[in-house]
Amino acid sequence: MSSPSGSSNESSTYTVLVTGANSGLGFSTCCRLIDEFLFSRPQNHILHLIPTTRSASKSADTLDRLRQHLTKTLRRSNGTTLGISVLLERRIRLEAEQVELTSLVSVKRLARRLRKRGEQEGLRIDALVCNAGIGGWEGFDMLKATWGLLTDLIDTVTYPRYKTGGKGWVTKPQMAGAEGEAEGKEEGVDRDRDRDTDSTLGEVFTANVFGHYLLAHDLVPLMSSTTPDQHPGRIVWVSSIEAYPHSLDLDDLQGLHTTESYESSKRLTDVLVLSSELPSTQQWVSPYLSLPGSSKSQDQDGQELRRPKMYLSHPGVCGTSIAALPKLLEYCMFAVFYVARLLGSPWHCVSSYLGAVSVVWLALTPAAQLEELEHEEGKAKWGSACDVRGDERVIRTEVSGWGWGGRVGEVPDGGLRSAKGRWRGMRTVSKESREEFEETGRKVWRAMEELRVKWESRLEGVE
């Protein structure tokens, strides 16, 4: 934590940047960050919240709704006497930024603006929440969904196999610049346009993974620390419970040749984060988490840099705008989710506000506590869960090939390692599957770094 001004009050301001914040999980994450910060941090601490959206109009709307949420929070809080304007000025600082994550030019421009503020104002990013994304679905099989609901409801609505994913979706040509990228999407342009693989990228892959990957690297200067009393920033990735191992093909990292591009991108996210601290991946992780354009571990004054750390979360199962549905089907979806929760599913948070609990926990929990948890029990995928009454909690989530903490032989224990809601394709981590996961991590990090270096070179000077 630090002060944007670099004053003596260095630990009083905590800055969080949240991508995709105009709706769904992203907006709920912002609301929950405000609520938990207000009631868990000292009165002299300030939350500097930077939600990003794809356009100025969406940013204005998001800020307005966040202020409305803050007003409601104050009304619900007994004993809070500060007026909304005073509180906003003293404890909550809201400002919006725009970025289109499928445009690498747009990503670079945002990073450049923020780094410039770091140089001029002392801006520091304490937590980057990589939330924005798209589903890549074109519809679903109604007959398969109905049969699943009638015969195996909980598994069907936890690990759905009835969605129809798009195939071959690509971004606009990257070198065309950032102007109008959001408008092009909203006008429903052809997803298969400009199939020139030298100038385009997989759309779901770029929105869900690579855009964030590039942004996080460019923000390393604002997230690193050089003093012992200052913890480095954290990069909180939002994955999914649907990150199936079979969805990721290392020969099709961008998911262009599969109908499971969303699931592929989330498995890729899992592998990237969970393998980010293994000795075998440091050959690629080190330059990625070093200053842009350099592999050095020191700043310009020769101070040793403490690199930002990566954490992994998922929101359980909740209703968001990532999958657009007709109103009637949306109501049916929520009803079925509640039924699944009543039948004992731990993952059906249903509301995006409950689903945001793991993301916010990773963003606000003291760094020393997080480091101790992952040092003692292994690096984890932290999931949002709840009981039948809707009381939420954060728990470790089993990952195929990794388990709950990267340890061979881990089995459900009824506590933190629960078998409830377990994916049926899950197997106990063996020596062989653990080695395979690590090898996949090495290959993924190598491929992502090669792709980043390639595009950094191509984009040099264009932004």
UniProtKB/TrEMBL annotation:
EC annotation from Swiss-Prot or TrEMBL: 1.1.1.270
Keywords: Oxidoreductase
Name of the protein: 3-keto-steroid reductase
Origin species: Zalaria obscura
Record gene name: ERG27
